[in-house]
Amino acid sequence: MAASDHPGPNAPPGEPRPSASLVIINHRNEVLLVQRNPQARSFAGTHVFPGGNYDAKQDSSLAMTAIRETFEEAGLLIASSESSVDLDDATLDEGRKAVHEQETDFLTFLATHSLTPDLASLHPFTTWVTPPISARRFRTQFYVTFLSESVPTKFSSGYKEGKLPARRINLMPPQYYILETLRQLLPGHTSTAEQRERVVLLSHGPFGQLVINPRLHRDPASDKEYFIYEGDGLRGGATGRLHRVVVKRKGTAFTEIDLQRNFDIFTEDVSSNLYPTDARL
Q1: Residue 258 forms beta bridges with which residues?
Q2: I need a surface site. Which of 7, 54, 64, 151 has the fewest CB within 10 A?
Q3: How many beta carbons lie within 10 A of that of residue 78, not counting itself?
Q4: Which of 127, 115, 3 is nearest to 54 (CA)?
Q5: Residue 214: what pLDDT?
């Protein structure tokens, strides 16, 4: 985190900006990631799911934010057409550029081409709030959606499908948390109906509505850093319950992230409203 991203010593925490991010899973259980600009003010160079800030002028909901931002950032349009004719790459490219440069708004683009955003295909998959130690704060609603086995036609030519090279990439704890959760639910290289049903079932339970407000904790004995999440024993949860990540950093990058979670995410509700008084960290 850059020094400019920290609030001054006497400054109150900034109000989190509403935002949304979309976790897109294909038929091979691969997940789409995009790399942020290395010069970006926030999370420079990290790999993230496509997403961005809520725009009241264009977005009827956070799900719409996720669909619009995915189109702008990745060239993938999560929408259905009333026509039997798919849009060609040139039309998608032109529309993507126009929406991104604010020459037109997303709703106008959809209406012009008789497109309906597939809002029902998005499933909530936790909300994350940037800790108060950051000056630039976000309240990000994550969603999960599945692509069909056939390669979608509604891609702009800016979209390129491919695997990351065999190297380490820079993730933030929320992205790691979600990817590790999905890894446990989607074993193997073929997405099955049973796997997808389990993800949707999890989304419709307490996990999908869970709001995570990370709390930083440093252990002076081991010099380890933790982000402690709702329901952890250090946040008023049951003795011995773990809901945290252990991290190591090099500069602003996270070099190691280890998720420690020992409760049933399908059945146990660890929402913060169940633990109104956090233990002192």
Answers
A1: 246
A2: 151
A3: 22
A4: 127
A5: 96
Integer Cα distance of 82 and 97 in angstroms: 23
Q: What does the alpha-carbon distance between residue 137 and residue 5 come to, in Å, rounded to a whole number?
A: 9
Do 196 and 214 touch, CB atoms closer than 8 A?
Answer: no
CA gap 135, 124 in Å, rounded: 26
pLDDT along the chain (281 residues), means of 10: 50 84 95 84 82 95 97 92 79 92 94 94 97 87 86 46 57 96 95 96 97 92 90 94 93 89 96 57 44
pLDDT at res. 2: 45
Best CA proximity match to 122, nearest among 190, 73, 64, 184: 64
Answering whether pTM is above 0.90, one says no
Q: Rg of the chain's alpha carbons, rounded to an integer?
A: 20
For 89, what's the count of Cα atoms within 13 Å in the CB-facing half-sphere? Answer: 5
In one-letter notation, the amino acid at residue 119 is: L
